[in-house]
Amino acid sequence: MLSIGGDTGSPVLPSMMSCQDNRAAFIKSTINVSRNYGFDGLDLDWEFPIKSEDMLNLALLLKEWRLAINIESLASSKPALILSAAVYFSPNLLLSGITYPTEALSNYLDFLSPMCYNYQGSWDTSATGAPALLYDKSSNISTSYGISAWKQNGVPSTKLVMGIPLYGNTWELKDPNDHGIGAPAVGVGPGSHGEMSYDDIVTFNSENNASVVYNNETVSTYSYSGTNWIGYDDTNSISAKIKYAKAQGLGGYFFWALGSDSNWTLSRTASMAWDHDES
């Protein structure tokens, strides 16, 4: 799959989608590149549409893209290219109050990939948080809420591919003796701008003799050592999330990103959980 986009706040995608001629040129170019380099399909990663007009244009793009893919497939006698999109964890963008065109996404995409992470991070250093928790009784910012909302908005379970992070977010605790989820914090912790790959987290935990806690209520993991606090997913939370995804009948899961794993530990855990025959 060739993924296009990913640039947070970039004006390129909104500008392209707002004009029919630009959309047509973009669609033609993506199909040509995909065929020339032997890709199986195309993925759009727009982070994120912020206006109602953006959502309307996204629906137009997907409709025109799918039509062009089908026409090209008939003309070339090749299987139609797969078309997918990475999307916000929920169909409702909570800060802007706008909603994805779920009918268009469901009709024209082979699957969509909610990015179920970054719920908490360096933008709020007042308290620790579980950055990719499955459940949250106190808010709608959770993976279970997002997946349920996509389904309630008409997207079939089999078209949903749940995102899981292979990195964590870090905080500096105000008091090393107060170290639960939601504990007071005074800034970001170790890592680059408050982020650490899972591989680095494993190393940090080992070198600093960190305490590791799995929180069953939220389905998330955190570790702490002194004033350093890290929220992330480990084998326990990954296994529980995969079990949830299977119970929900989802089409699959994806990691961001494989290079951040530690000796394929979480990748193998997820694969074994997904393939496990519970009968």
UniProtKB/TrEMBL annotation:
**Alphabetical UniProt keywords:** Glycosidase, Hydrolase
Note the InterPro entries from the entry.
Chitinase_II/V-like_cat, Chitinase_insertion_sf, GH, Glyco_hydro18_cat, Glyco_hydro_18_chit_AS, Glycosyl_Hydrlase_18
Q: Has keyword Hydrolase?
A: yes
Q: Where would one find the signal peptide in this protein?
A: none
* A Pfam family of this chain: Glyco_hydro_18
Residues annotated as domain GH18: 1-277
Q: Does the keyword Hydrolase apply?
A: yes
Family membership, please give it.
Belongs to the glycosyl hydrolase 18 family.
Q: Which PANTHER family match?
A: CHITINASE (PTHR11177), GH18 DOMAIN-CONTAINING PROTEIN (PTHR11177:SF368)
Q: What protein does this entry describe?
A: Class V chitinase CHIT5-like
Source organism (scientific name): Solanum pennellii (Tomato)
